[in-house]
# Entry
Amino acid sequence: AQSVTQLGSHVSVSEGALVLLRCNYSSSVPPYLFWYVQYPNQGLQLLLKYTTGATLVKGINGFEAEFKKSETSFHLTKPSAHMSDAAEYFCAVSSNRDDKIIFGKGTRLHILP
Amino acid sequence: DGGITQSPKYLFRKEGQNVTLSCEQNLNHDAMYWYRQDPGQGLRLIYYSQIVNDFQKGDIAEGYSVSREKKESFPLTVTSAQKNPTAFYLCASNGRDRGAPGELFFGEGSRLTVL
# Structure
């Protein structure tokens, strides 16, 4: 079975500071990993995904994530936070066995002026 | 415009009533999903379907039912057996990208409140 753990249900950073949102996964087969963002009362939007190949993945809005198999992690980073980054972020895992996609509980990112 | 359309956006129901949430997509995706979202719980998978006339239970299928008679449509029925149905429901579809699971496209959600 696959699972995702996101450390920290709420994270606060100052505008201009580094954003780091943590995600660890569990999977018995090679995982596919995703980060999604959700703004209030809306659906989710894909930020980036890892399937195969390069382990450092770049996404939209300046975000990137690195797949570390030895640490079973896929942490999301952004060098400089912007007020518009305030939202809820979800890490998700899937595999090539089927189309089941499992989400973590989410991390709400707060940006301090 | 291609996308996922969920309706209704807001729905109120009395205890003991069944209610059906609509989800339609025009992205020509094979796979469709229903998730339930509660504060602090993230998204929990209710049902998913990889192809027409086939679907699988997710992690919290009890009290819900689905059908997949057409590729474009994946309605969710919240039955009276669902003990705590008040939640935000999200439908999504997924087109495979070179053999790997692709991006999930989400609707705007349906908020169900049981009175």
